[in-house]
Design a protein that fits this description.
Largest sheet: 4 strands, antiparallel
Helix content: 55-70%
Radius of gyration: 22 Å
Structural class: alpha+beta
Order of helices and strands: HHHHHHHHEHEEHE
Shape: elongated
Number of helices: 10
Length: about 290
């Protein structure tokens, strides 16, 4: 139990760190250039602009209320997370959303911008924010908004990913931006969100499928693999060519994240085991995404 709690605390720390990196990418590079994020944060930014620039609401200049608006939007989505994605995911998501709101609200927007060129700012901000989001997702947390919907639909269909869901919601957000602002703002914002979505999916290793081939002499490897990943595997008997000794050849499909987990476990069980991974683009059959 202590080991489980220690591992969860470690993952929660990196999940919260991911929200800090995401907020830094947004507030240091995207917001100063008057670019807009996609998804529900983009909705929060639009509402903030309407309140500050058009309604002239008395909001302190050193506070960005887009994060607070995002937190309010997240409340019904957190209910969905609790019902569909598990208790631990719900708890970690509440913590991550809370910290993300604090970071988005109080990390200052530099004036003048760190990068004055909008293209460079969109790319750099997209890489930083996407990496932060992917780190949060990879460690079992979530920044809320479209990330919750992305994970929810990932469980329903293997054709979905967090990045794809973000892109679909972004279409609606940027249509609104095109009607309210100039097209230049929309174009550079789209560049940002494209980079952000790509880096998110690249970092979120639970969304990357792999195949694994294991050659071992231990009878403990298969039960441990099943316990860690809750997946089955195919195995058959083999013979090592040089030693002429019997061995087990195990083949299975899994996520890249699960591959890291079983690699550590196999090394502890059989230090002489041979393990190789290779990426697969398509899996047809009874294969479920575990989040």
């Amino acid at each position: 139990m202590k080991a489980i709690l220690s591992e969860r605390n470690k993952r929660l720390f990196f999940a919260v760190l991911g929200t800090l990196i995401f907020a830094a990418g947004m507030n240091l590079f995207i917001v100063p250039l008057n670019l807009y994020s996609g998804g529900f944060l983009g909705i929060g930014q639009i509402v903030r602009t309407l309140l500050v620039d058009y309604a002239h609401a008395p909001i302190p200049s050193n506070i960005d209320i887009a994060g607070i608006i995002l937190y309010l939007i997240n409340i019904p989505l957190l209910v969905l997370a609790y019902k569909s994605l598990g208790r631990w995911f719900f708890v970690s998501t509440v913590i991550c959303v809370t910290f993300q709101t604090v970071f988005l609200t109080f990390i200052p927007n530099p004036v003048p911008p760190i990068l004055s060129d909008k293209l460079a700012g969109a790319i750099v901000g997209g890489v930083i924010a996407g990496y932060g989001c992917g780190m949060t997702l990879k460690n079992g947390g979530c920044g809320g908004g479209q990330d919750i919907l992305g994970l929810y639909f990932m469980k329903k269909s293997r054709n979905f990913s967090v990045g794809k869901i973000s892109m679909m919601i972004n279409v609606l957000v940027y249509v609104a931006c095109a009607l309210m602002f100039d097209l230049t703002t929309v174009v550079y914002s789209l560049i940002y969100v494209a980079v952000y979505s790509f880096v998110t999916d690249l970092t979120h290793t639970q969304n990357q499928n792999m195949a694994c081939l294991i050659i071992t002499t231990s009878d403990e490897v298969l039960p441990v693999i099943q316990k860690i990943t809750n997946r089955s595997a195919t195995y058959w008997g083999g013979i090592r060519y040089f030693t002429k000794s019997d061995c087990k050849v195990i083949f299975m499909a899994l996520s890249k994240f699960e591959g890291v987990q079983i690699s550590r476990a196999i090394k502890e069980i059989d230090d002489h085991a041979f393990v190789t991974f290779f990426k697969v683009d398509t899996i047809v059959g009874n294969f479920h995404k575990h989040l």
